[in-house]
Write a structure and sequence with these properties.
The protein is α+β, with helices and mostly antiparallel strands. The protein has four helices and twelve strands, in the order H-E-E-H-E-H-E-E-E-E-E-E-H-E-E-E. The radius of gyration is 28 Å and the shape is elongated.
């Protein structure tokens, strides 16, 4: 007859502890000193890669998009949106400053550190990028008339603008293939396609998808 036998602790397994349960010693000061620079370097690398390929925090430097975006607001710009689809009318986009536009840089040389600080919204970007709203798409004719915007002769409904907003006369302008007509929401104080003409689709950095600062005004765009 097989009887019940109580468990007996062995010399290699203290009573009350599961197998392999061992107390690990805390990391030494020397080990931490070696790991911290590596962790900082990894964080910087991740921030740089995210900013380059995925998304970037962008500081609003002017009032051209008031009331939607105020000076000092921060938005997150998706850099992969237009890998999935073409720009849509009404999208708020960030793009390289067109040649000859106010603030357009003479050189594109920028330091890696500046890129990183801009990517997390700590440092105010230079005026190498603009932020505006897409109004006219390739193949369309855009015109400003009687305080309103017309696309192919039909008045454009713009619910994102205050009711009292008026747009200066311009055009008509034909938007070329691969081009976009962009305008600021603050129509009386915006340097946009009325000044520098259509922009090239390939100069678009990405689409502004959410306002993250200030927290009280955080919202999808």
């Amino acid at each position: 007859m097989i009887g019940w036998r109580p468990a007996v602790a062995t010399a290699h397994e203290p009573p009350g502890l599961p197998p392999f349960a061992m107390e690990e010693a805390p990391p030494s000061g020397g080990q931490l000193a070696r790991e911290i620079p590596l962790l900082i370097g990894l964080a910087i690398l991740i921030a740089f890669l995210v900013k380059t390929f995925v998304a970037q925090a962008f500081y609003i430097p002017s009032g051209s998009m008031i009331p939607q975006l105020n000076i000092g607001d921060r938005v997150v710009v998706s850099k992969i949106s237009y890998d999935l689809h073409d720009p849509h009318r009404g999208d708020i986009i960030v793009f390289d400053a067109p040649p000859g536009a106010p603030g357009a840089p003479a050189s594109k040389n920028r330091s890696v550190i500046r890129n990183i600080f801009e990517s997390i919204g700590v440092l105010q970007p230079s005026t190498e990028e603009y932020i505006k709203r897409v109004i006219g798409l390739p193949g369309e004719t855009v015109q400003g008339k009687d305080g309103r915007v017309f696309i192919n002769g039909r008045e454009l409904v713009e619910p994102y603008l205050p009711a009292t907003t008026t747009t200066s006369d311009f055009g008509p302008v034909a938007v070329p293939k691969g081009g976009l007509w962009v305008m600021g929401d603050n129509r009386t104080n915006s340097s946009d396609s009325r000044v520098f003409g259509t922009i090239r689709r390939r100069t678009v950095v990405g689409r502004a998808i959410v306002r993250v600062w200030p927290f009280g005004r955080a919202a999808f765009l």
